Here is the input.
Amino acid sequence: ENDILDKLPLKGKKVLITAGPTYEAIDPVRFIGNHSSGKMGFAIAKSAANLGAEVFLISGPSHQQEQHSSIKRIDVVSAEDMYKAAHQYFNDVDVAILSAAVADYKPKNVANQKIKKKESSLTIELAPTKDILASLGEIKKHQLLVGFALETNNEIENAKGKLKRKNLDLIVLNSLQDKGAGFATNTNKITIIDKNLNEKPFELKSKVDVAEDIINEIVLRIKS
Ligand code: CTP
Ligand code: CA
Here is the structure.
């Protein structure tokens, strides 16, 4: 009987995951976006579902496809949409993993009509988006809250700063310094840091294997 429980350690658990980029509208035909593919978040969703979790996968625009009957996909476009969806599900989940590459800024005003080109230069004023992860950190109760940090320099220090500032239980540091890690690739090099600031570095691996490492760390923390 214990064997079966060990094989599905997330049975009965609900997991919220954000994935992919967000698109911030400039006018009806243009947006500000980024190169996030959604691969990492979708792989995490699959790993969690494989271990028995009921998964709510809130995804920005992505060509990825969810591959499990226990994954409910919620499609969003902008940071504001993702914020609303995340808050809608957060109270009801046991774990939230925010892997989305959310835009930090959006156009302050969205033009109603397509902006026409002129000879002169064009300036678009940007306003900050809401930080979804930080907002969940402020209201979290029983939930295990996991964030990502994408860094190019002072990686560990910056990641620890985000962990503290956003009131997280775990942060997954994504190293862009290594070739083969990051947005368009199939591999990632991560270090997982917990709230006691213990650092656990992992080898460069496929995103599918990285997802399993992340979910395994979460399983350990849910049990204890
Ligand atoms: N995040 C979020 N909402 C935002 C911005 C970021 O939920 N508006 C989350 C990301 O999904 C990730 C974590 O915050 O889990 C860190 O994102 P990152 O871009 O590395 O950090 P920022 O806090 O945005 O700071 P900066 O981009 O300046 O490094
Ligand atoms: Ca950011």
